[in-house]
Design a protein that fits this description.
The chain is an alpha/beta fold. It folds into 2 domains: 121 residues, Response regulator (Rossmann fold), CATH 3.40.50.2300; 61 residues, Arc Repressor Mutant, subunit A (Orthogonal Bundle), CATH 1.10.10. It is built from 9 helices and 5 strands, in the order E-H-E-H-E-H-E-H-E-H-H-H-H-H. The protein has a 5-stranded parallel beta sheet, with helices on both faces. Helix 1 links the parallel strand 1 and strand 2. The two termini are 31 Å apart.
Length: 211
């Protein structure tokens, strides 16, 4: 998967000088910068395309509402919180709300550029995982209830004879369903089928593979 558009750094900062500096760092990281002077203004932006990261300069407690709202979005972006004061309990809560990192000001330009690059890479990986999960969900939805039961037995290491006994069907019928499962799941091997099943389970998929 390649980036359809240039990566973006959303900077939230009321200080115009520092906001301009964030823009320079974004450019060094190969990204375009979009500046906001308040978190409320930033939260009104709903159209976010391509890899992105938010740089938020503020006292940590004032970022809690923003972090909570972003975490609830289907495509939550990484957030780097930049602050002059670091208090342990506030840091813990910010991380629990989804902050990618807390950076204490003042901070070196090269270090910030590197953290922006890392955050953009993380967002690309998150997008890849979301795409893969959606694709696998579509494949699982294509299975019949019986095919899902057979797949359950297969990925758990069951032989056709055992799966047949567990489901009260013939081994031949298991073979037919197993073949259909491999085709519908676009799996080129048993290992590939198991890998896809594990990905879905790790993603805490709302669609049960064992139904």
């Amino acid at each position: 998967m390649s980036d359809a558009v240039s990566p973006t750094v959303f900077s939230v900062c009321s200080n115009s000088v520092r906001s301009a500096w964030f823009g320079e760092c974004a450019a060094r990281a190969g990204a375009q910068a979009v500046a906001f002077d308040s978190m409320r203004a930033f939260l009104r932006v709903s159209d976010r395309r391509g890899p992105a990261v938010a740089l938020v300069e503020a006292a940590i407690p004032s970022t809690f509402e923003l972090l909570a709202q972003l975490r609830g979005e289907p495509a939550a972006l990484p957030v780097l919180v930049l602050t002059e004061s670091v208090e342990f309990n506030a840091v813990v809560r910010a991380f629990r709300l989804g902050a990618m990192d807390i950076l204490q000001l003042p901070i070196g330009e090269q270090f910030l550029v590197e953290r922006i690059v890392q955050a953009l890479d993380e967002d690309r990986e998150r997008s890849r995982r979301r795409w893969l999960y959606r694709r696998l969900s579509e494949l699982v939805h294509s299975l019949t209830p019986r095919e899902r039961q057979v797949m359950h037995g297969v990925v758990d290491g069951g032989a056709n004879k055992q799966i047949a006994a567990d489901l009260g069907i013939s081994e031949k019928t298991v073979e037919v369903h197993r073949h259909k499962v491999m085709l519908k799941m676009d799996a080129d091997s048993l290992a590939d089928l198991v890998r896809k099943n594990v990905i879905m389970e790790q993603a805490a998929a709302p669609l049960s593979l064992r139904g």
